[in-house]
Amino acid sequence: MALFGRRRNKRPAEQPDEQDYSDYSDEGDEFEPNQGDLEELAGPFDGDVPDDGIARLDLGSLLLPVPEGAQLQVKMAQQGVVEAIFVITPSGQFTVQAYAAPRSGGLWEGACGQLAEQLKADGANVRSTSGEWGQELMASIGDMAMRVIGVDGPRWMLRAHVAGPQDQAAQAAHSLRTMVRGTVVVRGSQPWPVSEPLPIQLPPEIAQHIEAQGG
């Protein structure tokens, strides 16, 4: 089985001290190498998993293709709720999150503008560019670069971003798009407030490990 490691975060400047982080290393058979071709996919997909041979991590509201050799970092809230899953690779740290959206769509346009203003307020240089699914954000601060992609789906919005070294920005952006193409969003029929993050559920093996470590 794959190996787990856990650490309690030492109060980084941007996070309150009640948040926990757990690391998961893909060093065994928990995630087998993808057998399909992510480059050829036309996702993100809504609900139904395509018969494409791609191994995906089941997170409840998301089925996420994880690059071979990647590490997973789980961000937990006080109540044991999963706030985010980070996929760590040499080119950067990736995050994919799904949100509830109105039937009329268009949630990404407003969210994109708000995020751009927030990044500027944090001192980042931000510019907008047109990408595969519409508007994307590119940001840089110091030696770090960020790319943010948004996709409006049926009653959901998918937001994906990667942050990493400037010299890896092109590879990171390519990997982010590849990850988005292979992602499946499982919104379900339950009503959710607009802009509410869809809940993330950990696979049993990961959840049991975190619980055993005092998470």
Automatic annotation (TrEMBL):
What the entry lists under Pfam families is as follows: DUF3710
Q: Where is the composition biased (Acidic residues)?
A: 15-40
Question: Domain of life here?
Answer: Bacteria
Regions of compositional bias (Basic residues) in chain numbering:
1-10
* Region of interest (Disordered), residue spans: 1-50
Name by which UniProt lists this protein: Uncharacterized protein DUF3710
Organism, scientific name: Actinocrispum wychmicini
Q: Provide the taxonomic classification.
A: Bacteria, Bacillati, Actinomycetota, Actinomycetes, Pseudonocardiales
